[in-house]
Every structure is written in C-alpha cells, then in structure tokens.
Design brief:
The complex is a heterodimer of chains A (394) and B (200). By secondary structure, chain A is α/β, with parallel strands linked by helices. In chain A, β6, α7 and β7 form a beta-alpha-beta unit. In chain A, α1 runs antiparallel to α9, α3 runs parallel beside α4 and α10 packs across α13. In chain B, β1 and β2 form a beta hairpin. Chain B contains 8 helices and 5 strands; from the N terminus they run αβββααααββααα. Chain B has 2 domains: 139 residues, Sufe protein. Chain: A; 61 residues, BFD-like [2Fe-2S]-binding domain (Arc Repressor Mutant, subunit A), CATH 1.10.10. Chain B is an alpha+beta fold. Classes of the chains: A alpha/beta (394), B alpha+beta (200). At the A-B interface, α10 and α12 of A face β2, β3 and α2 of B.
Amino acid sequence: MEHRNVYFDNNATTPLHPEVKKALVEGLEIFGNPSSMHAFGREARERVENARQQVASFIGADSEEVLFVGSGSEANNTVLSLLNCDSTTCACSLSGRHDLVTTVIEHPCVLNTARSLGRKKHGVHYLHVDRHGRIDLEDLRRSVTDKVGLVSIMMANNEIGTIQDIKEAARITHAAGALFHTDAVQAVGKIPVDVRDLDVDFLTMSAHKIYGPKGIGALYVKKGAPYCPLILGGHQENGRRAGTENSLGIIGMGKAIEMRALEMDAEEKRLLELKNALKEGIAKAIPDTLFMGHPEYCLPGTLSVSFAGAEGEAILLYLDLAGIAVSTGSACASGSLDPSHVIMATGVPVENAHGSVRISLGRENTMEDVQYMLEHLPQIIDRIRTMSTAYRRR
Amino acid sequence: MAKWTYSDKVKDHFMNPRNILREDNEAEYHGIGLTGNIKCGDEMMVYIKVDPEKLTITDCKWRTYGCASAIASTSILSEMVIGMTLDQAYGITAKDILKELDGLPDNKVHCSVLGDKALRAAIDDYYGKNGMEDRIKTKGAKIVCECMQVTDEDIEHAVLDGARSFHELQEMTKIGTGCGECQENAQAVMSGYIQKHFGL
C-alpha cells in the first residue's frame, strides 16, 4: 500500500471540522467586545450567546448554566479550587466540608490540583480502579464522609477510554451531602451526556477534542450550586470568569458542538466498527498482546494495547516513520521518566505500561487507515522484538 | 515537515540498527553484559568476541529493550568498540556515545548511560571467565540504583566531581530516575561521601 498519513491520536487533539473552519474564518470579522453596548459589541455578544445556547442544549443544560473558559484544565482547576474557599460569610462556601474525593486515573490537571489541595491540609482521598479502569462504587460510598465537600470523577478516561457510571457516582455523592464534578472532556461529543439525567453539579468540556479550536472550553455549573471564580477581574461570564470573552474560540466551540449534535451518533457507531476491525486485526496478526480499557464501557474510538517485549516510544517512532500518529504511555515518551499513571493504576505489569500504545480514532479515519495500520504494525512489533532483550519467540 | 525527534545519526541507527544479535548463538561470545531492567523501561545486553592474544574486541552484538535513543546508542556503541583493545573499550563513557550520536535531548541522556555500562559488564564477564579478575574495576562496587545501574563508586565520583545536592547527583548519574525506590538510600550514600571527602 502507498505511503499514507494516518492520524490516530484524536484523544490528544483533533483536526478542525470543515464547518468549524468556515465558522472561524467568518468569525474573524467579529472583533467587537461582547461587553460593549454598541452595535459592534452587540454583534459579538449575539454570537457568544448563540454558541452558549448550542453548548447548553447539547448537554441538556440552560444557557445560564454554561460558562466559557480557556481550557478543560482551567475548568477543572476552577471547580477543585472551590474547596479553598473557607470564608464562612461567602455564599459559595462549602460549609466547612473541605475534603476531596477523586480517582487515581484523573488527568494531571485534576491530580496536580488535588495534590496542591492536599498540601494545604485538605484531606484528599484517591479512589483506585480495577483491571479495566473502573472505580468501585462501594469504595466511593465509604469515602464520602461528612468532611468531603466535593467528589471529582472523570467520565471517560483519555488514555484507556474507560467510562465510569457517573449517574450512580453522583447519586451516592449527593446522598452523602457533597457536590459532584465530572471531567467530561473526552466524553462530551463522543457519547451521549445529559446533565439533568446524570444530575451532576459541575461538568468540564473542551472544544479541541471534538474538532473545535484549542484554547476554549466550557464549564457547566448547575443552577444554585456554590461557585467562586478562579480568575478575578471584570464582570464577564456573569462575574464567574474574568477576562474579555474569547469570542472567536467560543464561535468555534459552538459550531463544533452543533456539528457533533448532527453527526455524533452515526459517526461514533462507525468509529466503533473501525476500532473493532483494528482490534481483531491486531489480535490475529500479533501474538502476546494485551488490550487495556473496559471491553464494554469504553469510548467508541479509543483502543489501548500493549505488546510484550516492545517499548512504546520505539513503536510510536517506527509508526511515525510510516506516517502513522499514535501516543504511548511509556516512560520514555513522557518526559517525566514515569510510565502512564493510568495504566499502572489498572494493575497490569509495569512492562505493559512501557509497551502501551493508544490508538484514538476520529471522524477523518477510514477503513483504509485501519488496513494501512494493520499492514505496518505487525512488522514493526516483530522488528522491535527481534532486537529486544525481553522477547523470545515461543 | 518539522524536524524529527532526534538527530539524523540517531534516526539512521534507529531505522537501520547494526550488529543485532539475531541468532541464538550466545555461547559463541566470550563476554556477555546485561544492564538495566524492563521494569525501568530500558534493558541492554552486550555480547563481545575477544582476540585472546591482543585482547582486542573482534565482534560486538547486542539486544536492547527500550526507546529509540536506547536502540540507537547500543547500535552505535557496537560499531565504536570493534577493533578496540579491552582497555580502550572499558574507558568509553556515556559522553563518548552521546558525541557519536550527535547528542540526545536532555531527558534521554540516561538511555545512553546504560550502553557503556553493559559493555563494561561484558568485558568484566570476559575477565572473570579468563582468570583476569584483577582487571575488573567495578568489583566491590555496590549497586545503589537498580534501574540506572548506579553504584556507590559512581556516587563517590560524582561527589568528587562537584555534586552536592541530590538534584545535581541525578543530573550527573540519572540515579533514582527509574522507579525511584532507591532515592532515600542514595541520598544517605551521597551524604556519606560528602562527609568523607569534604567533612560537610
């Protein structure tokens, strides 16, 4: 097969949807400050509010429950930082419940914020996960003590794709009197998400994982939920996030969500078929492989796999030379010398974390891409194993 | 196209690794050295054939489990040592390998540190098998960091070379950058040498 460029790293980020690109180019003309009262400002305000409506309706929320932020990381920081508010006179104070419950497989923006809280004498409890990356809801029930103000659990994991039972987790949390936040950056736009049905208090979204622009995310804050801004300043976003609105990014996010509303169901079904073909092909062509992530509760386009005796960075770079882009949980590619905390948390041997590869499919991928991958990957793994100290053909 | 992750030299050795031990003929080699371990993400095995008269390396083969820079550094090392005397080969440092590779990114330097250690282990193995134990220089050195194969002697040398903080020690030896379990012990060993040599 001829050389192709195949982008299989859609959980890292995605290419812009052509309709989003169009909306962004048109949006470049809208320069007014949405806070201005004149015609230029009103035009920008209208675009921003349209986008807010699109985002809100996609997740079953009201417009005034959605605020735009700079990233998923900012949204997560904002919510976790609510625990820092210890003023008894503050309307958003969490009435002295300052502890946090989260999981060991969260994104670093949650984990590092949680660690920072821990250093400030907040109690932080980390829920562990099983072999497939799911938390134990009984463990959650035991962990939400009367000191816990907030529970934060990601909806779908970025590395292995595992989806948690957020509805039940929120129910357990509320029964114990705490607030519930979910980082749904990898979920919104890939699987159905309805905030009323899930009954969460806070939910984090990002545009660039679903064919929108980078530098724009959104936070759902349930009506009446306690709230304190992370960024102080002007009155933008109803005083909940200071800084002139990123109107261009917001326009792009609105369009990306609008397109997801139209395309998600059919598209994700197609991605699941592609993923299954890929998974079967890999299992058939390559011995000694281990698939990570939940076999059923998993993002349609995410496949996490590990190859005995082959190190992840080497796999990534040989694939790169063949034109295929994936990511790895190997320490060698992380810059930190630590293998993926998510894969380690599932309890598989550390070799599997070093040898793990994440293939994340997106709307531009085709069956030809899958075939191209299946043509190259077995050779590459064989080649690496031939020179490996850690693999002998059986 | 943006620049590739590594130098052209690394790319070449990654794409066309030289001197891989392909056959199961380990027994034909006179010295075998293993360093690192899979848990830490890198493991290297070096096999040498030695001319017993001239004590020169006539052949060098290897196997590596690891990233692109680990593969490339063992590959280039195998080319460097053929024809060298055992003494010359023993003196090869990570710096020499780095230079041959036209450099590695800072966070990858530890991958090349393993190659020279595997080679010294192979030479020591040869010495041990041929009644030349007196030439084994690492004899008696105790491994403090299993992942990066750092010995107490390495720590002593680093201290003598100016390392005073654990961070500096890590910069110089990559100690404790794998699983991290040795860090406490390594700090104690380091303090001991600082005390011994500088009375601090």
